[in-house]
Design a protein that fits this description.
The protein is mainly alpha-helical.
Length: about 130
């Protein structure tokens, strides 16, 4: 069974279409389209990973950092939500609706909305 954070990564990757061979993120092994940074400044280029596994691990690390509130991405207060995450990834408005539909099915949780807090994805799921 996939963890919630893995479902979140998959939802964003599906939206990005980064699994399609014609997409630059596919060839970069970068399912979240993570960007390169030099001295803390975005270069506008995609990070390239040696394997898909490495790209997924980097994406999960990035999402866990953001969802734990330890990111410099200004995800706090009212922005500490799926909608805020969509903005941080510079995805177009309305993307959160697609992400939520995907997550409701993937996590089997109809309560997921654009305002679902990001820590939902790092907290242990109860088996009760």
């Amino acid at each position: 069974m996939r963890s919630r954070i893995e479902c979140l990564l998959t939802a964003i990757a599906q939206y990005n279409k980064s699994g399609l061979p014609g997409d630059a993120a596919f060839h970069a092994n970068n399912p979240l389209r993570l960007g390169e940074y030099e001295n803390g400044v975005a270069t506008g280029k995609l990070r390239h990973f040696t394997s898909l596994h490495s790209g997924i691990c980097a994406g999960l690390f990035d999402l866990k950092t953001k969802a734990s509130g330890k990111s410099r991405a200004k995800l706090d207060g009212d922005n500490f939500t799926i909608k805020g995450l969509v903005r941080v990834f510079s995805l177009k408005d309305g993307t959160e609706e697609y992400i939520c539909r995907y997550l409701r099915q993937a996590c089997n949780d109809d309560t997921i909305t654009e305002n679902t807090r990001l820590d939902y994805f790092v907290e242990a799921k109860s088996d009760a």
